[in-house]
Amino acid sequence: MALMTVLIESEPSLFDEAFSQPMWVDAMVEEYDSIMKNIVWEVKPRLENKSVVGSKWIYKWKHVVDGRIEKYKARFVAKVFSQVEGVDYQEKFSPVARYSLIKSILALVAQLGWKIHQMDVKAIVLNGVVEEEIYIKKSKGFET
Predict the structure, then answer these.
(1) Mean pLDDT, range 49-63, rounded to an integer
(2) In the beta sheet, which residues pair with residue 69?
């Protein structure tokens, strides 16, 4: 438990903390490049009558089995809690697998002798159709 406490306390929680360390800057640049490559958004001026959703960076370490740091990960996330249902969005959807489904698949794998493969996704972009215009404030350090 003490090790986990040290890990959580050592990961940056603010942009200014991370920006002073090259490995976190590299992780942020990698995430930003992925966002730009996948054309996740387009930069345009905000209309006066539209609200803006805030954003922030989340910093996490990826570890190997023995606890050593394998990779520094930075994720750019929207502060969607500031959105208002009916104004900024119409419905809620969260693509999360239930544990019962995962257990069922693992049971099939064991019973049928299938091989299972685990992987880590480097970058994922959900390709859902968004009908509403959503304005998000770009993160500090990556302004246009």
Answers:
(1) 84
(2) 63
CA atoms in the 13 A half-sphere facing the CB of 15: 13
DSSP conformational letter for 85: B
> Rounded distance, CA 8 to CA 84, Å?
31
29 vs 95: which has the higher pLDDT: 29
Cα-Cα-Cα-Cα dihedral sign, residues 32, 37, 39, 43: positive
Q: Which residues contact 133 (CB under 8 A, 6 or more apart)?
A: 47, 50
Q: How far is CA 105 from the centre of its chain?
A: 26
What residues contact 77, with CB distance under 8 A and at least 6 apart? 55, 56, 57, 58
pLDDT at 126 over 90: no
Phi, psi of 79 (to 5 degrees): -90, 75
> What average pLDDT is seen over the chain?
78
Bridge partners (DSSP) of residue 56 are 77
Q: What is the pTM of this model?
A: 0.63
Q: Which residues contact 124 (CB under 8 A, 6 or more apart)?
A: none
